[in-house]
């Protein structure tokens, strides 16, 4: 497969914006928020972090269908992508000015940054069909995903150099990384010209959600998978948001130790995506995803009983394997069960389901931590979502679902 210039430019956006998820949401800023900014608060920093995540993801979920309609029916995808990217960059860089006690400002800036980051991705994803041949889109998407992991690794290594004496410089460093490498995207990515379709974006968004509800309930295997995804994604997203916070609170791991922990986990995420992609191709995707969820159950049980930082490193290896495999195969599963000419509508609904689950998980985790006074009870509670997701996954009859999706008549 020979990549076009536009495809390479498109993938550089993954390289750029993965820095935000890795450094801000998952590894460094999350711990800084809990241990420094919200230090001494009676509610607990973990609970306050859960509120910031919940608010930003609620806004992202509400606006996702509207932004998706705008992406499909305007000639301004690139302009909107630029707007939300700049907003992410500015609000991330401004985190430099928050420190201990600056709770309100820190929450406002993070909420804006996380909402903007998720909103930008709507327009970024909408460019995928324009950057390559239809037969190559899966591989281009996969390469972009892998390139994003590399971007996350690069910023983690840079953060490791700054963390000891200049931790506040990490946030503008992330903003600069996004600015530099997303510029490659904006310089190379060309928006296709076509006639403007005048649409009421709010009506289109509502129609799409209603369309999905109407037809999904008539497609039992697709419905069962989406319920399964909703349940287990609650657990996955919560682990992403709280893994570093858990390590810092339970084992006194320093920021440097946590960065190294996630560098290692990124490596096994590559392995997981590749290995379980092979299982999905050779056997079937439901089996590959089922094994991933069993690994997740082992991860949260092990986390509950984990006693040392060294043991937590080994746990990180297993968690990386689980996250790489489950995220890659979830998208594949939906694609197989969805009619080819209706993937835009159903992938939009899939995104909406994912964002709603991203609200619930951190909120539940924060509440349990606040009430129990110990994150171990919060992490073990996630086993309910992984087991429930696994049970629902086994209600999916894959061959029947694929056949039904190909033959289903939309009326």
Automatic annotation (TrEMBL):
Taxonomy, superkingdom: Bacteria
Native organism: Candidatus Syntrophosphaera thermopropionivorans
Protein name: MFS transporter
């Amino acid at each position: 497969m020979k990549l076009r210039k536009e495809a390479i430019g498109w993938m550089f956006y993954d390289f750029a914006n993965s820095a935000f998820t890795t450094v801000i949401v998952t590894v460094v800023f999350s711990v800084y928020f809990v241990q420094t900014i919200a230090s001494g608060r009676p509610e607990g920093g973990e609970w306050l972090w859960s509120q910031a995540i919940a608010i930003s993801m609620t806004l992202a979920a509400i606006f996702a269908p509207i932004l998706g309609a705008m992406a499909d029916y305007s000639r301004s995808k690139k302009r909107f992508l630029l707007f939300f990217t700049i907003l992410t960059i500015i609000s991330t860089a401004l985190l430099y000015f928050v420190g201990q006690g600056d709770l309100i400002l820190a929450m406002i800036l993070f909420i804006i940054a996380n909402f903007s980051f998720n909103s930008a991705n709507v327009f970024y994803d909408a460019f995928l069909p324009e950057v390559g041949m239809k037969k190559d889109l899966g591989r281009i998407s996969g390469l972009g995903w892998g390139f994003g992991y590399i971007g996350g690794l690069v910023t983690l290594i840079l953060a490791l150099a700054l963390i000891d004496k200049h931790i506040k410089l990490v946030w503008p460093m992330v903003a600069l990384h996004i600015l530099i490498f997303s510029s490659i995207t904006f310089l190379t990515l060309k928006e296709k010209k076509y006639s403007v379709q005048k649409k009421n974006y709010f009506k289109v968004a509502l129609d799409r959600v209603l369309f999905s509800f109407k037809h999904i309930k008539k497609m039992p295997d697709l419905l069962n998978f989406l319920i399964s995804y909703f349940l287990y994604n609650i657990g996955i997203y919560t682990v992403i948001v709280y893994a570093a916070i858990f390590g810092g609170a339970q084992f006194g791991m320093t920021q440097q130790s946590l960065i190294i922990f996630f560098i290692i986990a990124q490596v096994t995420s590559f392995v997981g995506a590749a290995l379980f992609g092979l299982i999905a191709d050779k056997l079937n995707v439901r089996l590959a995803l089922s094994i991933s969820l069993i690994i997740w159950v082992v991860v949260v049980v092990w986390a509950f009983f984990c006693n040392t930082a060294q043991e937590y490193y080994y746990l990180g290896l297993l968690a990386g394997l689980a996250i790489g495999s489950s995220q890659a195969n979830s998208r594949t599963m939906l694609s197989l069960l969805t009619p080819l000419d209706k993937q835009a509508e159903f992938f939009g609904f899939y995104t909406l389901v994912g964002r709603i689950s991203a609200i619930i998980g951190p909120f539940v985790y924060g509440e349990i931590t606040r009430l129990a006074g110990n994150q171990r009870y919060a992490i073990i509670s996630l086993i309910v979502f992984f087991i429930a997701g696994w049970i629902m996954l086994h209600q999916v009859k894959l061959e029947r679902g694929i056949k039904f999706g190909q033959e289903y008549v939309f009326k």
